[in-house]
Design a protein that fits this description.
The complex is a heterodimer. By secondary structure, chain A is mainly alpha-helical. Helices cover 86% and strands 0% of the residues of chain A. Chain B has a domain of 176 residues: P-loop containing nucleotide triphosphate hydrolases (Rossmann fold, 3-Layer(aba) Sandwich), CATH 3.40.50.300.
Chain lengths: 254, 257
């Protein structure tokens, strides 16, 4: 029993490895599906904007409100913009955006490819001389890798606007002063680490969603499982990657 | 008695299968299958559900791999064929799926254009439109060009599925259960279409079915898959001229006179 479980785990691991390697083999080789990549960027990026905007804005307000009392104990409310800027850029924006995208985009990719597999659409592409991996997988993974970083910086901006609104109400700080303090606090390293993280998160969401959908077993149950596992696995990996990237980036001297 | 078609070349096989075996775990599906498909011929493969009919044609297009045996399509052996050569070979073999397998996020036009523009990226818009119109006229569904697959009936979906394979002008057509789930009138229309495709596009075809009306209508030759091999073959009357309990119920159930 245990041996069978371990065997299955190792087989799954080998399959994931093959899938990821195939992506890297095919991503740089033409013909390129530019039209499909742009369509996927629109699906992933533009259609996530309402959800991301609302979440980002609320995070900005809530984080500001909850940080104020702690800083007020030391009479340091003036540090609020800097604190929020660092927290949002370094950690909150990448993590929150990636988790929301894992739920929205990851499940969508898993379900879409899973149902295409079940209804033989992927096989139909294969027998008509088309490379379904390139059209379906490469285009989606490239799109998530491009769009998640864009969404992360958009979330950061919206969160900062939420924070600014709250600070303007309570501390009467102008928008100019607020953003001057924000940009004084953040460094190139913060932005760079955020960019690296969001790129890795985007790749993870895309490749996990595609893997689950593309390799889903037949039947409607398989489609549901693909969508579900795309979210669970992506979220789990995002936290692990967050931990690893923070550790690695801290090793680089200032 | 079905009229013998003179354009069928019984000395020129386009598909040759010898001693083909395929198992899934302990389930031995194909056990030493031998088969020839001749140029211009409509060959019907009859058999009960789960006997490996669909497995056989999926092996022919390389979607499944045989455990052992020889499969030769248009002179190319599928054993050790490179992915590039297999892709090139697949362009000459049209596959009509049982479920039609239309891309449900695309319109009929986009479904038809999809394989065409990927196979030949230098086509002009005018050439693409002409190709799309030609195959839609062939399946008599030009009016559905801008519809989504979800707006089509089962029979229309089958027709568009066939049109999508025809657009690449294949030499061989493989039909997987072309009349499954359709009403008798639509079945007759699909059978007629299969015969028209044979005449107009000069294709050689394998038609997988357990619908005897379809077999009788489209088959120039019929083979019956029994216990993993083709034990019976010939024309419609030859096949059912037996008291074999594995064969007789087919005819009795379908009430074919």
């Amino acid at each position: 029993m245990i041996s069978k479980t371990i065997d299955k785990y190792l087989v799954d691991l080998a399959e994931i490895h093959r899938f990821v390697m195939r992506f890297f083999r095919e991503v740089f080789v033409g013909p390129f599906e530019f039209k499909e990549i742009i369509r996927q960027c629109y699906e992933i990026g533009v259609k996530s904007l309402p959800l991301i905007s609302l979440t980002g804005f609320i995070i900005g307000i809530v984080f500001t409100k909850q940080s104020r009392p702690s800083l007020a104990d030391f009479g340091a409310q003036a540090m609020l913009p800097a604190l929020i800027a660092i927290a949002v850029i370094r950690a909150l924006a990448p993590l929150v955006t990636a988790l929301i995208a894992a739920g929205k985009v990851g499940s969508q990719i898993g379900a879409e490819l899973g149902s295409m597999k079940v209804s033989e659409q992927i096989e139909a592409m294969e027998v008509s001389g088309t490379n379904p991996f390139k059209f379906l997988v490469v285009s989606r993974v490239v799109a998530t890798s491009i769009m998640i970083p864009v969404l992360v910086f958009y979330t950061a901006f919206v969160a900062l606007m939420g924070a600014q609104m709250n600070i303007a109400q309570n501390e009467a700080t102008t928008i100019t002063v607020f953003f001057t303090e924000v940009f004084d606090a953040i460094t190139f390293r913060d932005v760079f680490s955020s960019l690296i993280k969001s790129f890795v998160f985007g790749f993870t969401i895309g490749i996990v969603g595609c893997f689950q959908g593309y390799t889903s077993s037949k039947g409607t149950e398989g489609v549901g499982r693909a969508a579900n596992w795309a979210v669970v696995m992506s979220m789990f990996l995002i936290f692990i990657e967050e931990l690893l990237i923070v550790q690695i980036l801290q090793l680089i001297p200032q | 008695m079905k009229k013998v078609k003179e354009f069928i070349k019984y000395d020129e096989p386009v598909i040759t299968i010898r001693d083909l075996y395929k198992s899934f775990g302990d389930l031995h599906i194909l056990r030493g299958v031998d088969l020839d498909l001749y140029q211009g011929e409509n060959l019907v493969v009859l058999g009960r559900s789960g006997t490996g009919k669909s497995v056989l044609i999926k092996i022919i297009v390389g979607l499944l791999q045989a455990d052992s045996g020889m499969v030769e399509v248009l002179g190319h052996s599928l054993r050790d064929i490179s992915i590039k050569d297999l892709q090139a070979l697949r362009l000459k073999v049209g596959f009509s799926f049982q479920s039609s397998a239309l891309y449900d996020s695309m319109t009929v036009r986009e479904n038809l254009e999809f394989p065409l523009v990927r196979v030949n990226r230098n086509l002009t818009r005018k050439e693409i439109n002409t190709a799309v119109t030609t195959v839609l006229e062939a399946v008599d569904l030009l009016q559905s060009i801008d519809q989504m697959p979800s707006e089509l009936s089962g029979g229309q979906r089958k027709r568009i599925g066939i049109a999508r394979t025809l657009i690449l002008r294949p030499e061989i057509m493989l039909y997987d259960e072309p009349t499954a789930g359709l009403d008798p009138i639509t079945c007759i229309e699909i059978n007629k279409l299969i015969n028209e495709v044979q005449d107009r596009f000069e294709t050689s075809s394998i038609i997988i079915t357990h619908d005897l009306a379809c077999a009788k209508s489209v088959g120039d030759r019929i083979v019956m898959l029994l216990d993993g091999t083709f034990e019976r073959q010939g024309n419609f009357d030859d096949i059912f001229d037996t008291d074999d309990p594995r064969v007789k119920p087919f005819r009795d159930y379908n009430f074919i006179e």
